[in-house]
Amino acid sequence: MNNLPWLAQYPKNVPHEIDPSEYENLIEFIESTAAKFGKAVAFENMGVELSFQQINELSDHFANYLLHETNLKPGDRVALQMPNVLQYPVALFGVLKAGMIVVNTNPQYKPSEMKHQFEDSGAKAIIILNTFAYKLEEVLPKLPELQTVIVAEVGDLLGNLKGAIVDFMIKRVKRMVPEYNLPMALDFNHIINKGKKYKYQRPEIKPTDLALLQYTGGTTGVAKGAALTHRNIIANILQVNAWMRPKLKAGEETIITALPLYHVFALTVNCFGFYGIGAKNILITDPRKMDDFIKTLKQHPFSVITGVNTLFNGLVQREAFKTVDCSHLKLAIAGGMALQKTVFDQWKQLTGVEIAEGYGLSETSPLLTCNPIDGTAKLGTIGLPVPSTELQIVNDDGEVQPQGEIGEIWAKGPQVMSGYWQNQKETENVMSGEWFKTGDIALIDEEGFVKIVDRKKEMINVGGMKVFPNEVENVITQLDGILEAGVIGVPHKSSGEVVKAFVVKTNPDITEDQIMKHCRDYLAAYKMPRFIEFREELPKSAVGKILRKDLRKEVQEAL
Questions:
Q1: CA dist., res. 183 & res. 136, Å (int)
Q2: Which residues contact 369 (CB under 8 A, 6 or more apart)?
Q3: Could you tell me the end-to-end alpha-carbon distance of the chain, in angstroms, rounded to an integer?
Q4: Which residues contact 173 (CB under 8 A, 6 or more apart)?
Q5: What is the pTM of this model?
Q6: What confidence tens digit (pLDDT) does each residue in 32-91 have?
Q7: One-character DSSP codes across 478-495
Q8: 386 Cβ contact partners less than 8 Å away, ≥ 6 residues apart
């Protein structure tokens, strides 16, 4: 990094630079980590543990099958469509070990969304959990390139007896597996057993070869595939670990992974990053089942938890969470959306630990900035750039702004993507040389901390005045009795747009007038909500981010 304003505030014991050439590729990283931590537990799900050694062996078998028993070859795209189950890291590492490119796919996608992503990526194979296989059946005839289908069942890696009981309950009792007909589908455990007969040989993979097509969340438009190289991911792993190293001890941490591993935050930070320090990773398959989630928390003396604002908010709202033992907790990390002050305060009061907010995007592997974890975090900011990362604030005319001025964040570093998959036009829209235009509006404050204002595309224009939804949402949620809020701009004949707030309340007696009175104390008149609509819930992405685009779509369709 150059002579930038945040250097004076940079955490002690965190290097300013990392060396992304420390590992040639992710295969070397996976294998060397497994050799280092051996029989220690790497992942746990539903009470079943797999060691680093077991994960390494199982992923070898998986890679062997792909390379020797199919027509797939290194460089082919392979889709993964699973929640947080033990099969996910096995398949993820196996695909990478085969020299193939992982296409992470949200299991909640509708068939049309699956079709778009598989067509766009040119996926030739898919590993999918059986609970979602019926959707694949619908689109498979329209995807001639997708020839290899591997279906996993939740119980596959839980042991013969427990696995059989779990699968029986899911299929026959809870009826969570809709009927499907995929006669060409291969069984996950069949893949593992067939792959055992081959000796794994690492393919030649360069640092610049693609490892992942990580599709953007599509919160502001059609999802695009961020093409992430082995070097991109390795750089971000090293950046994550350099930042966390002063507080965490290799081989001694227990991580709660409630965010889905197919999301880039959990993928890099939890699956790769904490794997790299030998942590025990507790996989939460469905955190929306909050009572079961809290029971799992009670069973494990966890030291790290990652999440988004809505996840932390959901926990602190539950009485049962107050009885969870958080005495071992060292670190809580938030990302994916703005962390609200009320959630920060409640979490700290209940656990004694502050939430460190970070920031990143699919296009940056994802981490760009994080608040220090040494007690110098600054609430309301996304912290400081991680090692080997530069940021600048740029206005609409492409001029770099001085400290304290608002503009778009441009980022540069070894974790920045090579571009969007087969989409040169969109790549050119967001890249300026080595700089990536994030689309987020921010400023760098007097201490060098970065403060996000909002998404550039979601800014509301009220008579020529800029209103940023995050600010209005944060004010509304500080009122007692409000759970969450989503703010958008709606058309208005005289001012172009006005502010509309969609509000979920915990106190049924809260009125529109009370919200308006509260907002007047904190917001300029043009930022005030003109309309307030109460909802039972708000549309959210897979990781719990409020989808303002869905709210805008509802409004547009009603006009």
A1: 12
A2: 358, 359, 360, 382, 383, 384, 385, 386, 389, 391, 450
A3: 50
A4: none
A5: 0.86
A6: 999 999 999 999 999 999 999 999 999 999 999 999 999 999 999 999 999 999 999 999
A7: TSTTEEEEEEEEEEETTT
A8: 239, 240, 242, 243, 367, 368, 369, 370, 413
